Amino acid sequence: MTSSPIASDISTPQSPRPNLAFRELRGQRSPGEFAAAVRRAAREIGERVSCDARYIGRVEAGEIRCPNYAYERVFLHMFPGRTLADLGFAPRSAVRGRGARPAATADAQYTCHAEHAANKESDVRRRAFMTGMTGSTATVAVATLAPFGVPTLPADLDRHPARAGIGAVEEAIRRIRLLDDRHGADGLYRRASAPLRTAFELLDAGTGQREVTERLQTGAGELAISVGWLAHDSGRFDDARSHYAEALATARMAGDEALEAHAFCNTAFLARDAGRPREAVRAAQAATRVASRLGSPRLLSLLALREAGGWAGLGDQPSCERSLARAQALFARGASDTDPEWMSFYGEAELEGLEAQCWSALGGWDRASLHARRAVALQDPHFTRNMALYTAELADDLARAGHPDESASAGLRALNLLQDVRSSRIEGMLATTARVLLPHRRASGVSAFLDTHALSRRSA
User: Fold this and answer.
1) What Gene3D superfamilies is this protein classified in (predicted)?
2) What is the rounded distance in angstroms from the CA atom of residue 371 to the CA atom of residue 361?
3) Chain-wide mean pLDDT for the chain?
4) Lowest mean pLDDT: which of 113-122, 162-171, 235-244?
């Protein structure tokens, strides 16, 4: 695959300038020792980066002109009070090519109504929020975002209000994703709506600085997607559709292709779950057209899986299998520095889990069970919600494949995981499994699952 101009500009410019500032910060430590320090710092703030000596060498050689957002947060955590420029990096706006581009005709037709609806709804939300606002916008932003990990006001709030607000928005995104990984969406959605309104209010207030405005646009759009996902996973499909449309409109207005690809990706996933498979295919294909310029095979792999899910919903097995094969081939190319930070959930387990869902939609229960079992085995226990999801998927596939005893065992494990996770989507899957297993109540373990499931529904 030909590398994109954007990816080349970020990581391998034709005449890289050595990053002497970053080299000075490494001091007497070897590249390997410094990489280990970066990984430790990442763990301190809940990030996951695969930093090694080669990455440090590429930074010092000037091949990586600007780190991705995950690395940015880690470096700024390691060297508090410094900016990316202090660390020898170029401004993100200089390497990401954020200028507006002509939208592809098909994409424009697909999203025109979504942008109009999102803009209209956003205006209503923002006006309502402004009516009750007191104090500086940044102060309110930080206070509103406090439940998601920003409990105190920065010392330099008065001197740098916009930057303080950006930090609060970006921290809220990170914390929402971490909490969702561990506890699911149901308990988070209502709490996340206020920070989202605040993020767009910050954007409306204006900064006069292009770099700050661009970061706010990206932050507000990513937060809209995060809140949209919470709505999606808690069964509020109309709310999710609205939030994703808002993110897509923000991306289009900002000329932010990475955000646009993310919004389309989630739109495709929602369309599949909402029973609109043809829309899922179109949205995934639109995302792929945008993402092809971003230089991330893993992102393209995930989008191929989104398209496969749509084809499966349409009952088109040949097209589904072609998309699955493309997803696997792209995944095999490995991780890249250009992979979006929000894709930290996408590993082998998610690849297997999404393939299981495709075969389930096609009625291939045995193949679905095989992939769901692999997903459970491969899943990092840190992602509690996904472990519950894959286990519930396995239980349903086994029930439909004619293995009620194994299904009941998996169902009990999923119910146990749901003690720490609240997800209407997963709970709905287990309710369906219980209905499928009801005629097999006398089979080994099935009655225990049905009784435990009934008890959990009464105590919810």
Assistant:
1) Tetratricopeptide repeat domain
2) 13
3) 79
4) 113-122
Q: Write out 104-170 in H/E/C secondary structure.
A: CHHHHHHHHHHHHHHHHHHHHHHHHHHHCCCCCHHHHHHHHHHHHCCCCCCCCCCCCHHHHHHHHHH
| Gap between the Cα atoms of 71 and 174, Å rounded | 13
Judge contact between 383 and 342, C-beta under 8 A. no
Express each pLDDT in 408-458 by its tens digit: 999 999 999 888 777 788 889 999 999 999 999 988 889 999 999 998 877
Q: What are the tens digits of pLDDT across the range 336-386?
A: 888 998 888 899 999 999 999 999 999 999 999 999 999 999 998 777 888
Tokens of 425: 């989507």
Quickly count: other Cβ atoms within 10 Å of residue 441's Cβ.
Answer: 13
Kindly list the domain boundaries of the chain, sorted by start residue: 5-67
- pLDDT for residue 211: 75
Long-range contacts of 443-446 (CB under 8 A, 24+ apart): 443/404, 443/405, 443/408, 444/405, 444/408, 445/405, 445/408, 445/409, 445/412, 446/404, 446/405, 446/407, 446/408
For 265, residues 6+ apart whose C-beta sits below 8 A from its C-beta are 283, 284, 287, 299, 302, 303, 306
Distance CA 296, CA 120 (A): 33
Closest by CA position to 402, among listed 365, 432, 438, 373: 365
The CA distance from 399 to 401, in Å, is: 5
Helices in 292-379 by DSSP H: which ranges?
297-313, 317-331, 348-361, 365-378
Residues in the chain: 460
pLDDT grade, residue 308 (50/70/90)?
very high
CB 245 within 8 A of CB 117: yes
Helix, strand, coil shares, percent, the chain, to 5: 70, 0, 30
- pTM, two decimals, is 0.66
Rounded Cα distance between 435 and 345, Å, is 30
